[in-house]
Amino acid sequence: MKKAKNKPLIRQIIKNKECYLMLLPFMLLFIVFTIIPVIMTVPMAFTDFDMVNSEFVGFSNFYNLFLSDKIFIDSIKTTLIFALVTGPVSYVLCFLLAWMINELPPVLKTIFTLIFYAPSIAGVYTMWQLIFSGDAYGYLNSLLFNLGIITSPVQWMTDSRYILGVVIIVQLWISLGAGFLAMRAGFQNIDKSQYEAAAIEGIRTRWQELIYITIPSMAPQMLFAAVMQIVSSFAAGTVAQNLVGFPSTDYKAHTVMTHAFDYTWVRYEIGYSAAICMILFAVMYIANRFVSRFFGKYIDGEA
Amino acid sequence: MSDINVKKLKASNKQAGKKIGGTVFIFIVLFIIGLFMIFPIYLAVVMSIKPVEELFVFPPKLYTLNPTLDNFRDMFDSLGNMWVPFSRYLFNSLLVTSAVTVGQCFICAMAAFVLAKGRFPGNKLINSIIVISLLYQSNVIYIMQYIIISELGMINTYRALILPSIASPMSLFLLKQSISNTPDAMIEAAKVDGANMFTICWKIVMPNQKPALMTVVIFAFQSAWSIQGGSLVYNEALKTLPTVVMQAAASGISRAGVAMAAAVFMLIPPVLIFTAAQKNVIETMAHSGIKE
Predict the structure, then answer these.
(1) C-alpha distances in angstroms, B205 versus A82, A191, B167, B175, B180?
(2) Distance from the CA of A104 to the CA of which of A56, A124, A268, B189 falls in 20 to 30 A?
(3) For domain B71-287, which CATH number applies: 1.10.1200.10, 1.20.59.10, 1.10.3720.10, 3.80.10.10?
(4) Domain extents in chain B
(5) Which residues of B touch A25 (CB under 8 A)?
């Protein structure tokens, strides 16, 4: 490593030309379709772009967001509550379920993985509207009715006390996606002989196996799942919009992403929307630093 | 020597006893959570096979006495009434999906290997840019992507549907994380034997990365299968299945039933791919124990 540092940059690049060549197709497409669009959105946040006109307005979008947009401030609160509940809960669920599934025989492994993963790809979360339906015929209401817990139907999706809870449940239901599958793959990649070796050395319980073998060898996948979890919990909004309406009663399920959606596709105030997304990015970036620092001790080269 | 074997045997016997009890317990817990997970999907399937007159029955029933494929027939009928034959949409979807899936696996796997194991100037920078791009969620990006695609003159081509989805930072990040577990010694040994990076990537590293690769296949297939094109293609003959299935779902008298039929129908291919990929992983992992 020390030797490499002393070499001039150009020689290092030539020495690694194979690496660059293998990276080239990805980087080419990535730069054109992701990096450039992302960079283009940054200056947008300082304009009042509305699809037709665009004028530089300095930081005024940001002033307006924090000083006069009360709905935005509320949406930050909603997003934080939402993310701090769904993020960790879903993450722990992903891990525990992936681990439990791993203990089962092969056929059951496939079946259970599919059952837990299916909600995230099925696109049928509107079915929850039948369950949470506000009349006495909604499945949940009629169940609680029969059990004698309630005497009049509860307006799950319009009563401001319950909206966020309903959205959180549905989001959790849908959230066993990329992170969950990555963890399943991680478990499948653990070398079985490590467990045999550990059994001789006195590791007996599944709990001990988990702490001393499983988690250390899964750390990279766990970091991946954590990043995906940050993205899906902070940038959530679509589920709430389709489920409890847009805008929801008293803006109870109005997340930052919903706010950005509103300004992009309803009001066409793109500049303002770009500023909203920028703030959301800052929050997610901080969360990511926190998470990678935590996993950094297991993975070298990361921190 | 034999002492160790006896010890090992005892340990594994003891574990086996505990394991059966534990496995049953785990099965019961997973089964209960599984019921909760599958219930809404079950409702969707029931709704898709309910006859029209039962759709409006109150209270809604959890089952149907007269299952029918009417909703599916209605969906295919309205698909048949489009300007372009159904088979064309199916072909478009299969073309786009397979191009994206194969391209994404191939290109992301190579890049992930290099980023995980190569030591070259710029490596760290690229790695952090990829994570940052995952974190930067903005619906304004779609507008910018549209501008770029149209600047490149790709509007109304298959390329507009395929190329933007190939370089997926998510797939790359997952593969890179998974490859980082591969012992360096294995790669160094291959280098000593004179293998170049490309050979090491495909002959040595990737065969051990089946679970991660198959996961990427599932992600790629599923995201590509749902590509709608939206404003990127306006030529009817280039549109994909989801675009027209959604249109069909929004028509007809028993909309809710047809919409669910559409959702159930679109779910079938991803589920098949998922099952095939999982089976592949479990089979290969049962046979290979080569690591370290």
Answers:
(1) 40, 15, 20, 11, 10
(2) A124
(3) 1.10.3720.10
(4) 8-48, 71-287
(5) 107, 110-111
User: Where does the pLDDT of residue A296 fall: very low under 50, low under 70, confident under 90, or very high at 90 and above?
Assistant: confident
- What is the rounded distance in angstroms from the CA atom of residue B202 to the CA atom of residue B207? 7
SS3 for B253?
coil
Per-residue pLDDT, B175: 95
User: With contact defined as beta carbons under 8 Å apart, do A16 and B118 qualify?
Assistant: yes
Tens digit of each residue's pLDDT (9 = 90 or more) over B37-82: 999 999 889 888 888 777 767 667 778 878 888 888 888 887 777 7
Pair B287, B223: CB distance under 8 Å: no
Q: Round to whole Å and give the CA distance between B183 and B179.
A: 9
Interface probe for B, chosen from A27, A121, A218 (most Cβ of B below 10 Å), is A121
- Most A CBs within 10 Å, among B139, B152, B232, to test the A interface: B139
List of residues 6+ apart from A221 with CB closer than 8 A: A182, A183, A185, A186, B174, B177, B178
**Distance separating alpha carbons of residues B187 and B170, to the nearest angstrom:** 25
A181·B219 Cβ contact <8 A:
yes
B180 contacts A299? CB cut-off 8 A:
yes
For residue B290, the chain A residue with the least C-alpha distance is A191
A residues 56-95 lying closer than 8 A (beta carbon) to B = none
Please state the pTM of the whole predicted model. Answer: 0.88
CATH fold of A63-123+163-296 reads: MetI-like fold (1.10.3720)
What average pLDDT is seen over chain B?
85
The answer to whether residues B244 and B82 touch, using CB atoms and an 8 Å cutoff, is yes
